[in-house]
Design goal:
Layout: E1 2-7, E2 12-17, E3 22-23, E4 42-43, E5 49-53, E6 61-67, E7 74-81, E8 87-88, E9 92-97, E10 102-107, E11 121-122, E12 127-131, E13 142-143, E14 147-151, E15 166-172, E16 175-180, E17 193-198, E18 206-213, E19 216-217, E20 226-229, E21 235-240, E22 245-250, E23 255-260
Parallel strand pairs: 7-13, 8-11, 18-19
Antiparallel strand pairs: 1-2, 2-3, 4-5, 5-6, 6-7, 9-10, 10-12, 12-14, 15-16, 16-17, 17-18, 20-21, 21-22, 22-23
């Protein structure tokens, strides 16, 4: 019945009534700083819960909402902290729901910034499992109990962790694909990757492979920004807006089978993809 988008610069969630083609009666949704700098609203399969990542430097949380499917209203916002108040991962971008109660998010911030508290430590790019059954909000409607880091940072492209800022994820059967982009330091350059993980045990992912420029990815591949799979789980698409290309992977072999770019399709800066038959 409803479609949602976040007004990132105005700290609001906007709601559209799809059948009427107008703003819904529940629009706009705003809960003080809990709706500040949100990047999208991502719903579980049943549509009764939603997670919205706080997409900004030192944003160490996502906001979990209850969803009224009749009115479109989002209520009871709870901040799900990625770590603790003193040691946390920051700058989440997207959410991938696994089922009605579990979701995965990934973070991008490399280290402290000018707004990082002096006594706080930034964990670095990582992947987190969120279990909404473990929500235990405190008096400020925040919880540290629901999020668990399942893939830690690594300082090497050969390391068993997230090497570059983890911009997006998608799941195909028991494999997790993580789009890693080099966009959080002084230069955006050709150091983007796609890491592939066995998540048969979601609490202990195992690295299968990390595709890199010239090593599984096109030599001019620069940013793994957004990544999404087809409903039949046969293919994964990765957008590299900086070099203007969309890369198609076969999930059986995890090899590139097609590249859409400026030369063959006219792309300039592809950003934000959608697959027919899927939410994203």
């Amino acid at each position: 019945k409803f479609a949602y988008f976040t007004d990132w610069t105005n700290n609001t969630i906007r709601v559209l009534d799809v059948s009427k083609g107008t703003l819904a009666e529940s629009d706009p949704i705003q809960y003080g700083d809990k709706t500040q700098w949100l990047h999208g609203v991502f719903f579980n399969p049943s549509g009764d819960k939603a997670l919205a990542p706080h997409y900004f430097f030192d944003g160490n949380h996502l906001v979990l909402f209850d969803v009224n499917k009749e009115t479109g209203q989002l209520s009871n916002p709870v901040e799900v902290i990625l770590g603790t108040e003193s040691q946390y991962a920051a700058f989440p971008h997207f959410v991938t729901w696994m089922n009605d109660t579990s979701a995965i998010t990934s973070t991008q911030q490399l280290g402290p910034t000018s707004i990082t508290p002096d006594n706080a430590k930034i964990i670095g790019p990582s992947v987190w499992l969120i279990n909404t059954n473990k929500i235990e909000p405190n008096k400020d409607n925040k919880t540290e109990s629901a999020a668990t880091m399942i893939i830690a940072p690594t300082q090497s492209s050969d390391g068993n962790g997230i090497y570059q800022p983890a911009s997006d994820t998608t799941i195909v059967n028991t494999k997790l694909y993580v789009a890693e982009e080099d966009s959080m330091d002084k230069e955006i350059n050709n150091n983007g990757h796609v890491s592939i993980w066995d998540i048969s045990d979601t609490t202990k992912p195992q690295l299968i492979n990390r595709l890199s420029p010239g090593k599984g990815l096109p030599e001019n591949f620069q940013l793994g920004h957004t990544i999404y799979s087809t409903p039949d789980n046969k293919f994964v698409y990765v957008e590299d807006w900086n070099s203007g290309q969309l890369v198609k992977l076969d999930t059986t072999t995890d090899k590139v089978i097609k590249v859409f770019n400026k030369e063959n399709i006219g792309f300039e800066m592809p950003h934000g993809g959608f697959i027919t038959g899927k939410y994203r």
